[in-house]
Design a protein that fits this description.
This protein is mainly alpha-helical. The protein is built from 4 helices and no strands. The longest helix has 28 residues.
Length: about 120
Amino acid sequence: MKYGRWIMKRGARMPIVAWLIFIAAAILEVLGNVMIRKGSYESGLVSIITGFLLLGCYGLVVNLVQWDFSRLLGVYVAAFAVVSVLCGRFAFGERVPVSTWIGLLIIVAGGLVIQFGKEFKW
């Protein structure tokens, strides 16, 4: 996408704008999934279509960061996991088990390795 090049160049470090883009994309993805789930169990087609639209918007937003695809989604998954668990805990009042919090830490650690792995001296 030509319009996304000014936001994040391929191979760039992880500035605050990338984190903001990932958080926005994660929120859109979580909301899209919520709407599809709601439509499937409760309110029907309008919620499902809204969910599809939100998921499409997520795809556009996350790709504003123009990194290699594997790195982009690898780091994004960590942001998505954090938003998902926090949404479940605070928006839906779910009791999140300790094992999920530990798993979340492992996912975030993996995202950090993907992001900064080239800088590590192995």
